[in-house]
Amino acid sequence: MPDDKIENLPPNDRRRFFQSGLSRLLGPLANYIENKLPIELPVFRSRLRPPGALPETAFLETCFRCGSCADACPADAIALLDSHDDQLRGTPYIDPDRRACVICDDLSCMKVCPSGALSLVDRLAIRIGLAKVNDDTCLRSAGEDCTTCVEACPLGEIAIKVGQDGRINVIDPRESGQGCTGCGVCQEQCPTRPGRAIVVQPSDAA
């Protein structure tokens, strides 16, 4: 077949020709990557973890699934995940629609963690996630003078405030050095239903 032009080949033969060439080209590269360069893809959080949690991959590898943090939480904000995935089952998480973290003075969950999956950090350095406001849903967009999220926040205007434009502004700690901890109190207390106008996104995805 070397004397035949590719465009003169039947469609099936042309397809096999290109597939064969592509396989010869990429095969060695794929083998090299698999055998010589094992790459661990990042695992992003899909749920909120308790304060002081390690990055998700390290968290899943380190957590004992013992429930100590949930037992110690004075706000009953930490629940244990019921999942078909063995890697996730029993891991602690926070659902602000159920109960938010209150950034308690004792920082109990971090202190009782026996595995190191939760490390003790200062209250202002907690990064559970970052609150995001849906201005279209927020009652302030409908002309109501609602400041429930600002008043409920454990950190107050350090983390969230009403801006000069009348909208709720969440302070991103990555920009200012301090700000929203992602505790979820704003989400828990937000009066809009069925969906909250302010929702905390996990820290790795914030």
Give an overview in words.
The protein has 206 residues and is an alpha+beta fold. It has 2 domains: 6-36; 56-205, no CATH class. The chain is built from 7 helices and 6 strands; from the N terminus they run H-H-H-E-E-H-E-H-E-E-H-H-E. It has helices spanning 11-36, 56-62, 68-72, 108-112, 148-152, 173-176, 185-189, and strands at 78-80, 92-94, 129-133, 160-162, 168-170, 198-202. Strands 1-2 form a two-stranded antiparallel sheet. A two-stranded antiparallel sheet has the order 3-6. It has a two-stranded antiparallel ribbon with strand order 4-5. A hairpin with a 5-residue loop joins strand 4 and strand 5. The longest helix is centred in the N-terminal third of the chain and has 26 residues, at 11-36. The N and C termini lie far apart (56 Å). The relative contact order is 0.16.
Tell me roughly what share of residues is in helical segments: 25-40%
Whole-number count of domains: 2
DSSP, total strands: 6
Distance between the termini: 56 Å
Unreliable residue runs? none
Q: Helix- and strand-based class?
A: alpha+beta
The biggest beta sheet is recorded as:
2 strands, antiparallel
Write the layout of secondary structure elements.
Blueprint: H1 11-36, H2 56-62, H3 68-72, E1 78-80, E2 92-94, H4 108-112, E3 129-133, H5 148-152, E4 160-162, E5 168-170, H6 173-176, H7 185-189, E6 198-202
Antiparallel strand pairs: 1-2, 3-6, 4-5
